[in-house]
Amino acid sequence: EERKPSSTGGTREVIEGTAQTYKDVVWDSGNVSRISNLTSAQLIQILNAYGGNAKNLIPYASNYITAENKYGVNVFFLMGLNALESGWGTSAIARNCNNWGGVCASDNRPSYGCGSNYNCSFAKFNSVGEFI
To answer: What is the rounded distance in angstroms from the CA atom of residue 41 to the CA atom of residue 99?
Structure first.
């Protein structure tokens, strides 16, 4: 177990290999199935503090926390993946189709003209929350 000073004034603790905690928040870059222990309010504070394009995720903080708890995938990983795939929610597919991850259309989730690439036609979602 290793403790390192944090730039935010507290102590960051390294646990079990790559897992790190700050207070009761967990991030493990080696295991995305470790949940963060964040609340929606805490996540909003983090996104506000980070600023820039991270603020695009604020309206969906509760959706991300719900998804983390439902699927057992760390919220930071989920948000990072969606930010990368959607250009922080600014891509045409993200804006027009609420598809922040390049999810392919299927019989259950049609494209409705959301565009395509060499691999698939992109699915349309009713909302970003539904996508998450």
So the answer is: 24
The SS3 assignment for 66 reads: helix
| pLDDT of 15 strictly over 70 | no
- Tokens 């989920």 belong to which residue? 78
| Beta-ladder partners of 13 | 3, 21
Q: Containing H/E element for 14?
A: strand 11-15
Residue 25's CB is within 10 A of a number of other CB atoms, namely 17
| Residue 75 and residue 43 in contact, taking contact as beta carbons nearer than 8 Å | yes
Neighbours of 110 (CB within 10 A): 12
pLDDT at 22: 65
